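Hi support team,

I've been running sequence recovery on a batch of backbones for a student project. Most finish fine, but this one hangs at about 90% for roughly twenty minutes before it completes. I'm not sure whether the input is malformed or the queue is just slow. I've pasted the C-alpha cells below so you can try to reproduce it. Let me know if you need the job ID as well.

Thanks,
M.K.
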C-alpha cells in the first residue's frame, strides 16, 4: 500500500500538518513523501494541474490519499475518478470548493481579477503574497462541489472551523456509509489537535499495531 499526502491551498510540503504526519509515520517505520501541488508555479495553479500532479504520483497503482483543506477536496475528486485509490483521510476537506470560492469575492473583484489576469493571494508556504492567475477560476468551475467517491474514508474536522464549516463534512458523511467522521474542538488549521488526529489516523490505518516497518511504501513522482 502506498500513501500520498496532499497539502492545502497556497501551502507547501513543509506545512506543519504534512511534516507532523511524516514524522509520525516515520516513527512507525512508514516513510512519507509529499508532492508540491503547484510545482513551483503558483501563478499558473489550477485544479486540473494539481490533479495531474496527483496522477503522476499515483501512477495508476493502488494508493491511499491523505489531504488537508483543498488537498482533501482534491483527494476526494481524484478518488471519485480512480478506483485504484484504496482509502482516504481528509482533514477539514474543502468540499463545495468551486461554489464557495466564487462566494469569496464580489462581482467587482471578479471583474478586476479577470481584466488584470491575476490577483495577489497570501501564500502560507512562502509567507508572503503571490499572484494567482484567473485561469484558476475558469478551471475550477468545471468540477463538482461534492465528489462522490466509493472508497472508505476518515474525515477529521474542527467544530470551530470558520473557513470550511464542519456542517459541510457532517452533511457529506451522513449521506455516505463508508465515510467515518470525527469532529474535534479546533479551527480550520487543526494544528492544536495533532496528537488527537494521529490517534484517529493510526487507528484507521492500523499503525503501529498491524503495520510492520516497511509494509507501507509511500511514493510520489
Amino acid at each position: 500500500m502506498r500513501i500520498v499526502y496532499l497539502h492545502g491551498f497556497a501551502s507547501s510540503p513543509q506545512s506543519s500538518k504534512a511534516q507532523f504526519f511524516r514524522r509520525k509515520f516515520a516513527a512507525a517505520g512508514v516513510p512519507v513523501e509529499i508532492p508540491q501541488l503547484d510545482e513551483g508555479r503558483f501563478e499558473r495553479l489550477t485544479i486540473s494541474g494539481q490533479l495531474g500532479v496527483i496522477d503522476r504520483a499515483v501512477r495508476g497503482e493502488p494508493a491511499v490519499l491523505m489531504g488537508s483543506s483543498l488537498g482533501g477536496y482534491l483527494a476526494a475528486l481524484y478518488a471519485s475518478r480512480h478506483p485504484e485509490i484504496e482509502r482516504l483521510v481528509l482533514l477539514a476537506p474543502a468540499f463545495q470548493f468551486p461554489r464557495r470560492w466564487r462566494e469569496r469575492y464580489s462581482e467587482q473583484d471578479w471583474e478586476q481579477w479577470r481584466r488584470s489576469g491575476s490577483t495577489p493571494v497570501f501564500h502560507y508556504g512562502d509567507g508572503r503574497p503571490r499572484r494567482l492567475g484567473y485561469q484558476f477560476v475558469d478551471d475550477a468551475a468545471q468540477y463538482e462541489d461534492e465528489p462522490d467517491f466509493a472508497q472508505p474514508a476518515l474525515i477529521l474536522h474542527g467544530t470551530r472551523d470558520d473557513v470550511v464549516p464542519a456542517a459541510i463534512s457532517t452533511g457529506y458523511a451522513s449521506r455516505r456509509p463508508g465515510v467515518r467522521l470525527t469532529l474535534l474542538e479546533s479551527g480550520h488549521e487543526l494544528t492544536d489537535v495533532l496528537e488527537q488526529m494521529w490517534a484517529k489516523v493510526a487507528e484507521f490505518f492500523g499503525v503501529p499495531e498491524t503495520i510492520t516497518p516497511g509494509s507501507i511504501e509511500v511514493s510520489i513522482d
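--
Follow-up from support: It reproduced on our side and the slowdown came from queue contention, not your input. Residues 209-221 have pLDDT under 50 and may be disordered. No action needed from you.
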